[in-house]
Amino acid sequence: MVVDTFVDVFGTNPLVHGLVGGIFIALLNVFGAALIFVVRDPSQRALDGALGFAAGVMLAASFTSLIVPGIELTEVVVPGIEATGFLQPVPVLAGVLLGTLFLDRADMLVPHAHYLLTGERRADAAEPGDSLPVDDARLASVVLFVLAITLHNMPEGLAVGVGFGSGRVGEALALMLAIGIQNIPEGLAVSIAAVNAGLDRRLYAAVAGVRAGVVEIPLAVFGAVAVTLAAPLLPYAMGFAAGAMLFVISDEIVPETHLRGNERVATLGTMVGIVVMLYLDVALAA
Fold first, then answer.
1. What is the gyration radius of the CA atoms in the chain, in angstroms?
2. Are 10 and 16 in contact (CB under 8 A)?
C-alpha cells in the first residue's frame, strides 16, 4: 500500500527516489536542529535516551536494509557468484570493512563529535538558555564540530540512496523513514552542543539546514545513480554504507551515551530504536 502510493506519486526512477529520500532525511535533520528553539534545556538523561534510540535504528537498519539485502542481491548483480556459495557474502563484507576504514581514516582529520556534546556552558552567559559569546578558539572548535557531524551524516545519505538504487523500494522506504526519525533527536543533540559551545541559536539553525541539505541530499542521489549505472557495485556500496553507520554507532554514539551514568536509559532507547526499525522493515517490505 505505502510502496504503491510512493511509486504512483514519484514514479519508478531510482534517481528520483534517491532525491526524495535525501530531501526527506535532510528536512527531518533540520527539524531536529530547530527544536533548539522549543526544547531549551533538556536533561542529559533524555538526550542520552534519544541518542540511544538513534543508535538502535541505525544498528537494525544496517543489517535489515543494507547487509542482508546486499548479500541476497550479490548473485544477481555480480557475475560469477552463485547463490549460497562461499563467495556470496564477500562483496558486502568487503564493503563493510571499506566503510569502517573510510570513517576511521576520515575521523582522524576532524575531532571526535562527542568532545563538544559534554562541554559546559560558559559562565558569562546572561542567563540559562541564552546565546553565548564566541571567541576565536571557541568558534574554531564549533567549525570543527560541524565538520565532524557532517562527516558522520554522510553514511546516512549514502545508505538511503543506495537503498533506492537497489530497486527494493519497500526496504528503502523503511530505511528512509528510520534514518529520518533518528535524525530528529540527533539533530537536537547537535544543536544543544553547538549552543553550549557559544554559537547563536538562529545561526546554528541556519548552519544545520545548509549542512544537512548539502551533504545528505547529493549523497543520496549519488548513491542511487552509482549503483544504478554500475550494478556490480551495489553489494559493495550497501556494505560500505552499513560499515560506516556501524562505525559511528560504536565509536561515537554508544560511548557518548554511557559517559554520565545513563547507561540503562540509553540501552532502553537503543532497544526501542531496534524494534521501531524492525517493524518498519517488515511493514513496508511486505
1. 19
2. yes
Contact call for residues 152 and 113 (beta carbons, < 8 A): yes
Q: Concatenate the DSSP letters of all residues of 206-252 into one string.
A: HHHHHHHHHHHHHHHHHHHHHHHHSGGGHHHHHHHHHHHHHHHIIII
* Spatial CA neighbour of 113 closest among 126, 103, 124: 103
Task: Determine contact, residues 53/272, Cβ cutoff 8 Å.
Answer: yes
**What are the φ and ψ backbone dihedral angles of 16, each rounded to 5 degrees?**
-65, -40
Tens digit of each residue's pLDDT (9 = 90 or more) over 15-59: 999 999 999 998 888 888 888 888 767 788 988 898 899 899 989
Q: Model's pTM, two decimal places?
A: 0.78
Vertex 211: Cα angle to 14 and 116 (nearest 5): 130
Q: What is the rounded distance in angstroms from the CA atom of residue 51 to the CA atom of residue 133?
A: 27
Contact 238, 66 (CB under 8 A): yes
- Quick: pLDDT tens for 186-218: 788 777 777 766 667 666 656 665 666 678 888
Which amino acid, 56?
G
List, for residues 212-228, the tens digit of each pLDDT value. Answer: 667 888 889 988 888 88
* Secondary structure of residue 60 in the 3-state scheme: helix
Contacts of 270 (CB under 8 A, 6+ apart): 52, 53, 55, 56, 59
The residues, any chain, with a CB within 8 Å of residue 75's CB and separated by 6 or more, are 81, 82, 83, 85, 88
Q: Where are the domains of the chain?
A: 2-122+131-285
Look up cell 557518548; give the residue. Answer: 256
Whose cell is 571557541? That residue is 138
Average pLDDT, the chain: 80
